[in-house]
Structures are given as C-alpha cells and as structure tokens.
Fold this sequence. Notes:
It is built from ten helices and ten strands.
Amino acid sequence: MKIIGFYIGFAFIWLFTLLPMRALYLISDFFYLIVYYLIGYRRKVVKDNLRHAFPEKSEAETDELAKRFFRHFCDIMVETAKTIHLSQDEIQRRVKYINPEILYPYYEKGKSIVLVSGHYGNWEWMSNTPAVLKHHALAIYKPLRNEKFNKLVLKMRNRYSSRVQLVPMNEVFRVIIQYLQQKQVILTWFLADQSPPRNYPFRISFLNREVPFFNGFEKVARKFGHPVFYAQINKKSRGYYQVEFELLCDDPSSTEENEITRKVVEVIENTIRQQPEYWLWSHRRWKHAKETPS
C-alpha cells in the first residue's frame, strides 16, 4: 500500500508541477495560509528557534519573522517540486553564479577542493552548481528514511550535470580516495549545517546554543589538503537566486584542529543573520542543544 500511495502521490506532483511558476506561487500563498494558520506545522518549533537565536527581538518581531519564513518555506516546496520539469536553461536563468571563475585556477592546477553551504535560500536549486563548474562534483547527502522518496530526491538533484555523484555521508572517504587514485580533480560538496546524533563528539555554539556539529568537511580538507570554499545563495526576488563563492581556507595543513569548522559556523551564522527568514528554521537543529550566553 505504501508503494501504491507513493506512486499516486508522485503522479499528482508531476501533473501539479506542469503549471507555470506564476500559478505555483499563487498556490504557495494558499499553502502558507493552511500551513501557518490552520495546521500550524512546526510553528512552535520555528518560533522557539527564532527566540533563542534572536533574544533581542520582541515577540511581535519574532512572529513577523516566523511568518516570513513560512512564506519562503512554501515557495521552496513548490520550487523544489517544479524541478521535475525545469530545463537546465531555465534553472540557470533562475540561479545566477557571480564568481565561478574563482574556482577555475584550482581545477587548472589539478587541485581538488571542498565546498560547504547551508540550508539557506533554495539549496535544492543549487543542485545545478556542477554544471557551471569544471571540477567533478561529489555531493554528500544524508539518506532519507523513505527509500522511494530518497530515490526521487536523488534523481531530482542529479538532473543537471553528468559530472556529479551523490555520495552518502558514511561513504565519503572511500569514494574520495577512489577518485583521487584515478587522478580525478574533484569538488566535495557538503551541506554543513545538518544535525548530527546526540553523541557526535564535536560541539560548538551555533546561534546561541551549543550543539553537535558535523565536521566531516574539515576532516576531508585536512586529510587530503583540499582548500575550502563557501557557497552563499541569496534570494534576489521570488524564484530567483544568486550564488557567490568565498575562499575560507587555502591551506588546511596550516590550521589548528577545528579552526576550519569554527570558520564555517561563523560564515553560516553571518549569512543567517543577514536575512533570517531564508534559513530552514523548521529543522529540529537544536534538539541536542545546551544553552550558551548570547
């Protein structure tokens, strides 16, 4: 029955997303009213996360920020679903890359790199990133529990470039070593702000609460000597985004342990504070948190 339900649901989404983006955004506006006011999907979680992250804001400001987040969240839902039908030309028209040339010299020198980003803007539309770069990309992901849905998401993320391989988190080192042995120049891409299990050994203050924080990107950078870049995706208008790359560390061997991770946390926090509504506040990111001074 679950399989039948999945295919019925997929067929509905496939037909639904044949609508033009303008119509989908009208539907997103309607979804927002249902999700926020009627269902109240994770509304309590979102507001609690915002209160801890921005204790200086009044309750009215927190409420307004939560509403702006849910409007953006509903937009992400329809945008991500629309990926089923978006051509590469259309996705490149909607996601502009300001400075991809900053990465090209590393490729020309045969230098592999690490790229980190967060759940900000529309991170799913960043799946077209490898199409505008020269490196062969390894996109690291955390597998979903639902196997059918996991396969669908992977297929959507892998539409725009043949030079990308989606790699489960627990296979990162094995796959990297395999490519390096084949003399491949690779870009290993991490969504750095995912939530580790409670007993994950590294913890850090993130938006005023101490949490476990994945530092696999730093382990990769330090082990293989790969420079670390940050990809920031900004929402310019509804349905249009802009990606900018920033070098965080050119020589990981010269850094102290956890120095790169602390830098990544810092830049992600700075991104979130600029326009908080575009980060994924509905994520239970602080379920293993401890309070830290704000």
